[in-house]
Every structure is written in C-alpha cells, then in structure tokens.
Amino acid sequence: MTVFDKDTFAVVDLETTGTQRENNNHIIQFGCAIIKHMKVVKTYSFMINPHREIPLSVQNLTGIHDEDVQDAKDFSYYAPQIIDILKDTVFVAHNVNFDFPFLNYELVEHGYEPLTIKAIDTVELAKIAFPTLPSYKLSDLTAQLKIKHLNPHKADSDAYGTAVLLIKIIKRLERLPQATLNTLSSLSQGLIRDTSWVFTSIANEYRKQKHPLAKEYMQVRNIVLQKQTHNLANNNSGEDNHFPINDQTKRKLFANKINYRKAQVDLINHIHQFINNPLERAMLVEAPNGTGKTFSYLFSYAYQLYSSRKLVVAAPTKVLQDQIIEQEIPQMLKITKLDLTAEVVKASSHFIDLDGFVQTIFSNSPNKPTLVLQMQILVWLTETKTGDMDELQLTSYSNPIFTQISHPGDARVSSKFAEVDFWNLARERQEAADILVTNHAYLANHYMDTIWGQNPYLVIDEAHRFTDNVITSRNDALRFESLWGSLSRLRNLLYFSEDSVQNQFSENVEINFLLKNLDPEILDLIYTINDLQKILYSRKEEAINKIILPNGNLELSFPGKVLFPKDSEFLDKMSSFVQKLENVRQKTNQILFNLYQDHSSIPSGDDSLLSDITEEIDQLDYYTEKSYQLTDLISSEDNLDQGGFVLIATNPDDPLSTNLHWMMLDASRELRQIYSRFDHLLFVSATLTSNENFDYAIKQLALEDMDPITYIGKSSFDLNKHLEVLAVEDMPKPDSDEYLESLDDILINDLENKNHVLLLMTNLDKIHDVFVEIVNNPKLKDFEILAQGLSGSNNRIAKRFSIAPKAIIIGADSFWEGIDFHDQGIDLVIASKLPFESPDQPEVKLRQKRLEDKNINVFENDSIPRALIRFRQGMGRLIRGEQDHGQFVILDSRLWTKDYGKIFLQAIPVKVQKVSQKGLKDKLDNYDPR
Q1: Which domains, from first to last, does the chain contain?
Q2: Contact criterion met (CB below 8 Å) for 683 and 463
Q3: DSSP characters over 224-250
Q4: What is the pTM of this model?
Q5: pLDDT in tens, 843-893
Q6: In whole angstroms, what is the distance from residue 93 CA to residue 14 CA?
Q7: How far is CA 131 from its chain centroid?
Q8: 262 with 688: CB under 8 angstroms?
Q9: Sequence-ordered list of residues with C-beta below 8 angstroms from that of 528, at least 6 positions apart, any chain
C-alpha cells in the first residue's frame, strides 16, 4: 500500500509549435496518462490543429508534420474533454512550469476558466529521488531507469513514460528514512508549484506509523547516513605472491578470465624486469590502445607490494581514475587472487563536509537550484559510502553552496560528525591501501604527502600529458580588479550600507576606534593596487604578443625578464602592497572578532552581516596567498626565466583595468622534485614516440639524467581490421571560406549511417560557425548536436554524447585527447585540420619565444612533435580496444601538399586511402565494421 492510493494523477505532456505561448504558438498534441492506485490505468492522445505551420525544428523534434494535423479538430473541440479528464486529479508534467501554464493559456483563450488543481513537477522530483543520475531529460531518465515507451517526443508516449517515472519516484521516496523525509518535507516548500505536497504527504503519513531506522543506516543529528566501516591495515600473509615468471603459468592464471595475448605478456615481462633491476629508475612505454597496458602495469607491480611499499598511479582525468579503480584493479585482483586494496586519492574539496552542509540547511531560505541540490544531497547521503560529491555527476560546481559544503581537509576532531567524517575516513582507507590512484594535478601539488608511504612506486598513465598538467597546476593569477571590488564591498559593509557596522554599532567605542583607523588603510591599499596596475600597463609596448580578445579585453604576453627587468620598481611596490594587504586583513579580522563579542546587539537571527564580512576576509586571505606566490616568483631570476606573464586589461585604454596572470614555461625543475619522492617510475602512453623514438618525450618529461629504459609495445590485434583512414585530397585550403562550406556539406549529407561522430577542430571560434550552420538542418534531425563552448561544460557534452543514441560533437583542444568516451564507442572521427597549436595562444607564444632565444628550431622541436602526438591521440579516440571499429577522416589537404605531411602520414598505423569529396559519402555509407 502506498500513501497516494486514494489520489488520481493525470500525467500530461504537450507538443506545441513553440515555447512562447503568447507568440501565436499552440498545442499540436495532448497526451495524458492516468494513474490510480499507483498503476497506469488509461492513456489519451489528441492530435490538434494549430491553424498555423509547424516550424521545421519542431517537426524534427516531434516527428509531427503539417499533414498530421491539417484534418484534426482544433483546441476548442477538445477543451471540454480535457477539462473533464483533468477534473479532481493531480496534474503532473516533466517541466510542469511549461505544460500547466501553456494548457491554461489555451483554455482561457478559448473562454474557459484556468485549471486550479494541484500541479507537480517530475524534473525536480527525479533529481531529488535519484540524485546520482547523469541526466534528467525525460528520454535519458526512461533509458536509465529502463522505462519502455515507444515514441519519445510524442505527447502520448512521453506522458506514459513520465507516469511510470512518477511511480518509480514515489516508491523510492517512500523507502527513505523518517528523519530524511522530515527534513525534505521542511525544505520542500520552495519547490515548483505543489511539488512539496509529495514530500509532506509521505512524511506526515509515515509519522503516524512506527518507521524504525533500517539496519544499514545510522543517524547523526537529523542526517541519516549509510553505516561506515573503518578499514584496518592489511595483514598480508604473503602467500602466493610470487610473480609468475613462466608464461605458461600466466596462461593458466588468465584462463577463462582474459585472453592470453603475446604482445601483452611481453609488455608485462619487460615491466617486471625493469621493476626488479635496482640499477634502473625510469622506464618509458608506448603501448597501442586496446593492448591492455593498464592491466599490464598493475599486474607487474602488484606482486611487489608485499613489502609495505605502495604503488601510486597518476592518471590525467577523473574518468580514467574511475576506470582504473572500478574495472582494471578488480580484474587484476580477480586474476592474481592477491590480497590488495586500492583507493582513489583526490582533493578534500571533492568530499562533503557534513558540518557545513547541516549549517546550510538551517540558514536563510536558498534559491531554487540550491534548494534542489540540498534535497538531492540529503537523499544521496542515505546511499553514499564515500561522501565523494563526484558521485552526484554534476556538470557544474559554480553554486555558491559548494564553498560551504566542500571539505576543507582538516581533521574535524571536535565535530559532532567526527566519527563519520568522509574525508577522515577516506584518509584512513588511503593509509591502509596498497594501490593509490590519483590525478596528475593532485600528484604535482601533493607529492610530499605522507599518504604515499615510504619509497613508493609510481606509474604515470597517459604520460604524454603529464608535463602540461604539472605546468597548468602551477599557473595562477592576481586579479587586481577583483581585489579592488572586494575591498569596495568591504567598505560598503563596514561604513556605507544601511545596516553597515558603523550604523549598527555607533555606540561601541572599541569597534568605532577600529573602524576609524581601518578606512584610510583600505583606501591606501586601493591606491597601491592602482600603482601596481599602472607600472604593469606601462610595459605594454614591450609585449611579444598583443591581441584584442572576442570579449574586447586586451591580452599582452611577456617573458618574465621583459615584464620585470632588474630596475623595475614593481618589486618594491609589491612588498609594500603585501604588507598593507596583511594589515587590512588583520584589522578586519579584529572588527569581526569584536562583532561576535557584541553579537547580542545584532537584530535577532540576522547573521548575514557577519557572514558577508567573513566572506570578504576569506577573499583577502586568498589574495594574500596569491601575493606571496607572485613575490616569490619575481624575486628569483631562475623563476623569471622559467615563467611567462600575461596582462589582461578589461578596458584596453584604462591602466586600472589591468590584471596579471603567470604561467610556467619550463617544468623540468618541478618534475625532478616530484620524481625524487618515488622509485621505479613508469611512464605509459599510446603516444610517447615521435618518428619511433622517445627523444621528445624524454626531454619533455625531464628524464635525461635518469637515462630511462624505453619499450614500444606491439598491438595485440590487427589494426587494419578495426581502423580505416580516409584522407580527402580535394578539400579547399583550410583557412578559406570555401573550406567551411565543404565541411558543412560533408556533415549535413554524409553522416546518415553513423551514430556517434566526433568532429575535431583546431579553432574554438570556428566551432560556433559550424554549429550554427548544421544545428537545425532536417537531415541531421536524429542527431543531438553538441558544440564545445555552446552546449555546456566539456563534462556535460561528454555525458550527453554517451547517453544519446545518435550524436555529433564539434570540439577542439581537450576533445583531441583529454576527454574520455569509455562508455560510448565512436564510429567516426573527422580531423578538420592537422592539429598545430595556434601561435596566438599566450602559452604557445611564450614557450616558443623561449626556445627561439635558445636557438632551438621551434617548428621541428616543438610544433611538429606536439601536433603529431595530438594527431595520434585524435585517431586513438576511435579504437580504445579490440571491440572497437571505426573510420578516421582527414580533411586537411596539406597532408599531400606540404613536406611535413609525410611525417603525419608515417604516424598513421594503417594504409591511408585517398578519396575525393564526392567519393567520401560512399566510403562512409558502405563501411563494414566487421
């Protein structure tokens, strides 16, 4: 029996000619599913004549065409029947704030009273009931929850799918613990329309019955959590932990679990020999995609972990980290039967801080996105064993609540949640683990952490990206404009707003004394910031690169010694600035302390002033830290030589709009410091060689002093049977308008038989032009078209791509190599151009200038090797394993016309087929993946 047995739900979905109801848009289909006793008992579907043309984009989405409705009755005919169907029901829709007002608008326009029944929203309900799903679009929800409905985007089918979804949501909510339901009920009042009624009905009904806490839960204050287990250190017996030297023994171990592949076993044996040679420190391995390189290195190192030494694996992305932890390590342990444990190591900010979260629940009423997120987290806390917020699969962490609920990384000893603190429990598990999996950036910033243990082994996976990731982790900025804004807000809070400290505490002598002294210091600090900005701006003619960005900002690039010459007054002024900033921070802190002492004078319950001042102090802390970093950087000639600087003026004519960014150009010193902490370092990637030698990688990774062993693995399958490479020989020149026309033509006309297509560009600006040209073309109506910079974050794009039955991504930069599509095979990759870096990017210009100054041939030693690695990685998007098949299409005619084209051709592991633009469609249509 369910709480809603006596209620009738009418689950409605409308198809309309457009979203703006006042703009001559009308309903073209009314779909409705009736739920009684938590079962779908009846469905309705009416095709409705809108007396206007249906726009092409709506026809593409819904499959409803003008001829489908031209003989149908209009809305006035169906209105009485619709009113009768919905009478005495609870109105339900997936995005109720569209369907309910639209239907009421049509009713009023035809002379009927608007509906006044309860209306609830399944988007909000689904987010809260199923907080870890990657998407809440109806088609995605029905796929993820295995709800069958025949015709997505048809109103009758969508209404049925939404009805089954609602039943699943209610059943999930009814299984929640009472304390969780009570808190959800009290928070839910801010939800859309009457959606809160669902929570209050369940909570109120369950309060009438005994609802004991299930044994898998524990309750701390009003938060219900999964019971936590405290891991003790492994007491490995050491039995059967000898590496199987004999290949026949390996064959037996692998039997019925994984295929025995000679290429993989050769790789395992080479890594094993390296680990067991005390004279060797480093090894570089290039192993093709799909050869099981991750399993190989895990297998080779695992047998060495019984001497209390850990293996640290660093991967570039969260997706790869998760794959290693969730798939590769379990598989290795299943085969070896070794008694080892593994944990992910990531920043504390990934973990929820329960103290902070509880505070947000009792703070002032939040905005809608924050409210829904709080409710999602309450439900998620009944499910999670890790407290890792990545499980929520959010595509953005920009909500201000994350500054309050992200764990700061302290021990939390005196907290009510100390015993169940997720970060502390994660550290416990990491201390006890034998294998730790982290990411490149975290390793770069925490290589001295005790968590890695004594003399640990290190594997750098996707090693071709390690240097750039270390560099990125060291890049930073001092945004003077933001600091100036922060100081202005602080003055407003202290002196000028209606409820400022000065106005509220005019009687408090001590606070007034502090206020009187502080204001001139804040003003003096602002003048000092302005002086720093003027000094920097005055160097603009020395910049090696000047660009006006699309947003109108002026971007100026400088080598360190050019922006900060020996006689620069900037360093002296910087010392004065740091001192003044520190004084303002301390004195503001003192005022805050006094305010807390005089807390009784603040109007009851109004803590917003205190929290606003605390926020500004946090900002001052942040800028103080950045100021110390910058001072260290420019005080050392070595640092200046290895660094580049970029000035960004938000108003090109105003020196006081200048902000300073800095970047590392040479990471060799940093890399050597990281390596010194580890033993037997293995660098693995599918793309470490250039022209079949490791010279570029060894130099990039600063491994010259280690004289590393190198090994090129063989593919464990015949790539010719999995990969077809087509190069179009008659494309126009890559920078011409004709080229973009030809590209659009290929996308619109040649992709009919493909499902997942990745178009790799080299210019972010051109992505917009291509997207606009193809997004509403009827020939691509079955494809979800996703574009970098236009369709949300790269994470969101990757998620949408893996969920959609047919999709096209138009991407640049990280889509060549940084984004993983492990859950979704790609059947076509199109390389629009050979992936040379844009010389206008500051980091490229500054890095290449530094090489030029050392008389190094930039094209041969930097541009070509980087482009080759990216090109090979782009091809590697297709074939990730033996089960993958696909086509790689190159649209850059320079492959045939330039000398360097031969270098790219040599890097392609299968025979390249020349095709014409006309012949391409035939090749794509008739590709046989078998």
Answers
A1: 8-175 (3.30.420.10), 247-341+678-712 (no CATH), 476-667 (no CATH), 719-926 (3.40.50.300)
A2: yes
A3: EEEPP--PPPP----TT-S---SHHHH
A4: 0.87
A5: 999 999 999 999 999 999 999 999 999 999 999 888 877 778 899 999 999
A6: 9
A7: 17
A8: no
A9: 573, 576, 577, 580
Q: What is the residue-wise DSSP string for 609-675? A: HHHHHHHHHHHHHHHHHHHHHHHHHHH-HHHHHHEEEEEEESSTT-GGGEEEEEEES--HHHHHHHH
The DSSP code sequence of 489-555 is HHHIIIIISTT-HHHHTTT-HHHHHHHHHHHHHHHHHHHHHHHHHHHHHTTGGG-SEEEE-TTS-EE
Length of the chain: 930
- Cβ pair 340, 302 in contact under 8 A: yes
CB atoms within 10 A of CB 192: 18
Task: Give the whole-angstrom CA distance, residue 890 versus residue 908.
Answer: 11
CA 200 centroid distance within chain? 34
| Residues that constitute the known binding site | 287-294
Q: How far is Cα 611 from Cα 621, in angstroms, rounded to an integer?
A: 15
DSSP 780-804: GTTSEEEETTTSS-HHHHHHHHHHS
Instruction: State the Cα–Cα distance between residues 196 and 185, nearest whole angstrom.
Output: 7
Q: Alpha-carbon distance 273 to 280, whole Å? A: 10
Nearest to 511 by CA among 403, 628, 592: 592
Our measurement of the distance from residue 658's CA atom to the centroid of its chain's CA atoms, rounded to an integer in Å, reads: 30
Q: Where are the alpha helices (DSSP H) in 37-154?
A: 56-62, 66-69, 75-86, 96-109, 122-129, 138-144
The DSSP bridge partners found for residue 545 are 557
**What residue type is 305 in one-letter code?**
L
Give percent above pLDDT 90 in the chain. 70
CA distance 862 to 885: 32
Largest Cα–Cα distance in the chain?
Answer: 90
Annotated binding-site positions for ATP? 287-294
pLDDT tens figures, 904-919: 999 999 999 999 999 9
d(Cα 911, Cα 896) in Å, to the nearest integer? Answer: 14
Q: How far apart, in whole angstroms, are the C-alpha atoms of residue 402 and residue 118?
A: 33
What DSSP state is assigned to residue 48? -
DSSP 8-state symbol, 918:
H
